[in-house]
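Structure first, sequence second, as always.
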């Protein structure tokens, strides 16, 4: 791990969370998990179980990481807020997922523009318990960190957006959500699986050329057949 990265890391002061902050987690979990049992990838559901996500309180990252590290070597590393893209990708290349430890206020449960611990941990981290997704994300991080031109960076941002954030997967004939933006948001998931979103088969070249906007419901998303397809993509992009 390059030393320059570690300056961004903080400690999660779990005892400092208030009752009402745990209640926000409990509310968000109760809103999403029952629906996700029908609409989410089994990889998410199994991952959430494997890392021991609790329905009633904000996770203790150190406890969660003990389970995660022993499975795939990934860990969720607390950070203050947004990391510059290069540092973020460097962390991924080292199997560390920069994680916000704050939680959204109770009066803004549905939409917060910046990530919080519900998006980062509930939305992202369960997939890191899957060996194939774990390898994909590490390799993606290395490639994205090495992107040498703005155009190359843009293409990697698209790959991230249409997989890690807003990816869909076909399981037993049905399209399921796995991207964190869909896992953590009812409105985005409903849009992704509904009639107004065009769901295209995942084709790497098309994903790399597909622009996106972060401030609207997604009109186009991509469906993988399995996570092996993601791993093959980063293999193909590797020099
Ligand atoms: Fe995210």
């Amino acid at each position: 791990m390059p030393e320059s990265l570690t300056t961004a890391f903080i400690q999660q002061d779990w005892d400092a969370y208030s009752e009402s902050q745990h209640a926000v987690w409990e509310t968000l979990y109760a809103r999403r998990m029952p629906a996700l049992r029908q609409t989410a990838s089994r990889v998410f559901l199994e991952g959430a179980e494997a890392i021991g996500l609790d329905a009633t309180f904000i996770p203790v990252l150190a406890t969660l990481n003990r389970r995660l590290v022993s499975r795939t070597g990934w860990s969720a590393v607390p950070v203050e807020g947004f990391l510059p893209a290069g540092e973020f990708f460097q962390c991924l290349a080292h199997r560390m997922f920069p994680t916000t430890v704050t939680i959204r206020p109770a009066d803004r449960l549905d939409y917060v523009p910046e990530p919080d611990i519900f998006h980062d941990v509930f939305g992202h981290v369960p997939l890191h318990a899957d060996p194939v997704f774990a390898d994909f994300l590490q390799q993606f991080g290395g490639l994205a960190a090495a992107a040498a031109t703005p155009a190359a960076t843009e293409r990697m941002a698209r790959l991230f957006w249409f997989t890690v954030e807003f990816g869909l997967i076909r399981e037993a004939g049905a399209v399921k959500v796995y991207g964190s933006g869909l896992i953590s948001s009812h409105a985005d998931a409903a849009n992704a699986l509904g009639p107004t979103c065009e769901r295209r088969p995942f084709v790497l070249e098309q994903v790399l050329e597909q622009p996106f906007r972060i401030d609207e419901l997604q009109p186009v998303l991509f469906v993988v057949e399995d996570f092996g397809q993601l791993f093959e993509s980063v293999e193909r992009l590797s020099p």
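Margin note: The chain is about 50% helix and 10% strand.
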